[in-house]
Amino acid sequence: MKLIMLGSGTSTGVPRIGGADGRGDWGDCDPAEPRNRRSRVSIVVESKAGARLLVDTSPDLRAQLLANGIDRIDAVFWTHDHADHTHGIDDLRPMRYGRGAPLPGYGHEETVRRLRSRFGYVFAGQHGYHTICTIDTLDRLRLCAGFGVRWCQMDHGPAQSTAYRFDADGRSIGYATDFSAINREMVDLFDGCDLLVVDCLRREPHPTHAHLGMALELAAAARVGRAVLTHMDRSMDYAALGAEVPSHVLVGYDGLVLEA
């Protein structure tokens, strides 16, 4: 089972627009380190048979798919409806080409409701264009494209985000982004995961995201094999952070590929 990290940055990416010369605000991140250049978060999980699930449709999705040579997915899952996780949804259109039916898509009930309201044309077609994607709730979903699928809800400040666990080929990959507290359901969901991709905005606590201490706490509580940090801001220099974390914790970066 394979993880492909399409994007690893926070909602503004790294570098952030601005800077003294207008070419980007890198904060504490070394601009000479390519792994500090972060687009908005999204992942693909791939089974041994080649089935692929996409999690979230970031605003950078087109560039991410091209950079990673991904021209086909079998389904898409959304964690929540915030712009940095959904506004690349139109880039799913080429994934519809050559298919006899729309791409299947899934999310929590509230996420489904909000996405249908905002992107109705994607899920119903318009002006002679095919429906790109269907969208259904997760309530009865247990299997998708050969993957076992489990999920739970997480607090994301005043909102909520969906955590996912995907199992295939005797291995497991968990995904927990955009959470601000650890609950029992999360620990149970990720218990014994081979690989956990986990929210880690910065070192200091934040009202809507996990910080470094919380990310490490979840990985330890769930007894995961390896953890990969994601959704990092411009304070999280790749080399400096890599020197701080335990050996079983990796600093994620755009284009990272790992076997679970």
UniProtKB/TrEMBL annotation:
Pfam families: Lactamase_B_2
Ranges for domain Metallo-beta-lactamase: 39-231
Gene Ontology molecular function, alphabetical: hydrolase activity
UniProt region (Disordered), positions on chain: 14-35
Biased composition (Basic and acidic residues): 22-35
Alphabetized UniProt keyword annotations: Hydrolase
Protein name per UniProt: MBL fold metallo-hydrolase
Organism of provenance: Novosphingobium piscinae
